[in-house]
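Standup notes
- DV: blocked on the single-chain target, sequence here:
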Amino acid sequence: MAIWLSGLTIIGLIVAACGGTAPSTAPSAEASGAAPTAAATAAATTAPSVEPGGLVEVARNKTFIFSPWGFVSEIPNPENWNIYTSVGYNHQREMGLKGIYEALFYTNLNTGELVPWQAESYTYNADFTEIVLKLRDGVTWCDGQPFSADDVKFTLEMLRDNAPDMTYSGTYKEYLKEVTVTDPLTAIIVLTKPAPRFFRDNLALGHENHQVIMPKHIWEGKDPKTFTNFDIAKNWPCG
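- DV (later): unblocked, structure below
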């Protein structure tokens, strides 16, 4: 179920999309109608080469290029992939949501239907102060570790406890009392006051404003306000 791109691949995207070398003006074999040479075929299938500084040159046919929306095209902090860092405009969050992280739910924007993804369901109690969240079995992080209710508890309480210094943390400071884990696939989100739209608006709508869960086993023990979530050797960021 989980689809992920490692930090190594992301660097490949940046290099392929933003490299300073001018493109060749020589016609390609495909453009000229000629059959590809053995050398060209080998170049497209060999392992990526490592350039000075640890950047990886990735073959074009193995490169997925995508761009965040916004007012500037450059990435001012390419080695910080903490999507909850308050850095003003956060390109990494937008690219992370499109290419690394998945969400508990998505939205069919044609119908308004909430589509279960990492989660299977969420159910409020009678007075809208508790939400029982059921996760989908079999979802894993990029390193093979199971995605679990402990990750949900860690992420939401991390945001609550670091307000106002992290993106969206103010919402959790106001509304989140605690998250209780009853089993690996069940988390009970306890609110400070009735909020019937809380889960939908923050964790279910598949728009740019929804919050995604971070892996506890990677983030635990680190200062979430300064942790960059970036290490090519460890395949971070891990989604």
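- Follow-up: Confidence is low (pLDDT under 50) at residues 1-37, 39-45.
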